[in-house]
Amino acid sequence: MDEYQPGTQQAPAPGGGPGGCAGPALAAPAGRGAAWHAQARTARLLAWVSLGWMAGEGALGLVAGARSGSVSLTGWAAGSAIEALASVIVIWRFTGTRALSDTAEDRARKAVAVSFFLLAPYLAAESARDLLTGHRPAASALGIAVTAASVLVMPVLGVVKQRLGARLDSRATAGEGTQNLLCAAQAAAVLAGLAATAALGWWQADPVIALGLAGLAVREGREAWRGEDCC
Question: Is residue 190 assigned to a domain?
Fold first, then answer.
């Protein structure tokens, strides 16, 4: 058995603490070397790309939704603001030498949750009105083009960000990727409704899909508030 030598420091027991018990204060973050910083820059760059995409996607979607009277398209476009907020959070986190703050991240997460909760009542009210009044949205070539582009682009960004989030141990980055995937799923549903309206005259598809998006917004908001949106 090795003897303790004065002036030397014994290696910690496995697990990071006495007797192998890991404590929160001893859990040092894994690799923050050159590779980690390069991946952090990539995450910040992708967040900027997403922010620009969301601005264009949201603006075009709102224009198309207003022109066609499609509540599902308008609601989906308004949801771009929620994803843009997630991108802003990632940019903030990986800019300069700012230390990671659990308190700031918790507040930002709850702000995203509130945004979901604000979107849901609008979708539900407009959908119910359209179903009761028989409002028929017009066909929208612009809406079809915008949602189709989102279906193609968002899954790629989402998967890449989730992988980066795992490497960086960043819940914000992984959560942003999750929102991108959710955006693609929503876009696919709206696209199906727009296509059904244009080709078959199934106007009921639009408000029904919007109601589904309202329920999804409530669920995502609840999970975001609990901190489960990135898991």
Answer: yes
Tell me if 231 is assigned to some domain: no
Secondary structure tally for the chain: helices H, strands E: 7, 0
Contacts of 130 (CB under 8 A, 6+ apart): 71, 137, 206, 207, 210
- Counted domains in the chain: 1
Residue 52 pLDDT level (bands cut at 50, 70, 90): very high
DSSP for 30-54, written as a single string? S--SHHHHHHHHHHHHHHHHHHHHH
Q: How is residue 136 written in tokens? A: 């028929």
How many C-beta atoms lie closer than 10 Å to residue 42's C-beta?
Answer: 17
> CA 6 to CA 109: how far, in whole Å?
49
Asked whether residue 1 is assigned to any structural domain, the reply reads no
Q: Whole-angstrom Cα distance, residue 130 to residue 201?
A: 15
pTM exceeding the 0.70 threshold for the entire prediction: no
Residue 94 falls within a domain, yes or no?
A: yes
Residue 173: domain span: 39-226
Rounded to an integer, the average pLDDT of 11-25 is 43
> What tokens does 28 get?
């040092």
* Domain at 46, CATH number: 1.20.1510
Residue 100 has a CB neighbour count (10 Å cut-off) of: 12
